[in-house]
């Protein structure tokens, strides 16, 4: 099963038993319903019996399991190959294999359940940390009130921001809509080496002058928000929490049974998960 977030793209690859005549793709909810894509041959790539398609998942696609069907004919007879896709509302921080491998799950029967567990675990970590670790696919403009978000030291005036994971197309302006004054050239992202260390920019230094203290003036920041990459600790914590959620179906009363280990109570909190994400929790969250 392939996992993808709504609003992002999924690379789909099918291996057909033979070259298909009239090959086309249709994507439908696995549980039933109208097609959300196709049937169409537009964008379908071919290389022998290998077929590929980049599906740009609409941002309003509902979370759930979908079946991507490659269909056509071979010698005049209908033929098709199905590919399972799980669409989450937001990106997942770990893969199916991160959960399945430790549990020694080799089949795909429970992939949809595990994908839902991964989605729940990812969003739980967001909520606990007070931040999110996925990066916007394109720059997004945000308007913030600088009041209470500025500091001053010997380097100059700093504006504290939410996590910024890419400054390639950074844009900064002050004022109030629709009258904005672009000051991007006067701004330096901090920490200066954050992105090289795969950590986010969390402050903007104004080179000369001071950030407005409020009074109706706003700051408009255009950037790709989030983290440049999912930290290894967050990935591991997500997999652990998703595994716990998956195994919860076997412990309706909070108890897991095992012929080898006997009975073990499942605690309400997982100290291993918390230990992995503790350093990422923003102040006043926890």
Could you walk me through the main structural features you see in this protein, from its secondary elements to its overall organization?
The protein is 17% helix and 41% strand. It has helices at residues 96-103, 111-129, 232-247, 271-277, and strands at residues 2-5, 9-15, 21-29, 37-40, 45-47, 50-56, 64-74, 77-88, 140-144, 150-153, 156-176, 179-182, 187-190, 201-206, 218-225, 255-258, 262-265. Helix 1 packs across helix 3 (232-247), helix 2 packs across helix 3 and helix 3 (232-247) packs antiparallel against helix 4 (271-277). It is globular, with a radius of gyration of 24 Å.
Task: Tell me the number of helical segments per DSSP (H or I, 4 or more residues long).
Answer: 4
Low-confidence stretches: 255-268
CATH architecture tag of the largest domain: Sandwich
CATH class of the largest domain: Mainly Beta
User: What is the percentage of strand-forming residues?
Assistant: 35-45%
Q: What average pLDDT do the residues reach? A: 91
Roughly what percent helix? 10-25%
Oligomerization: single chain
According to CATH, what is the topology of the largest domain?
Answer: Immunoglobulin-like
Query: What's the N-to-C terminus distance?
Result: 33 Å
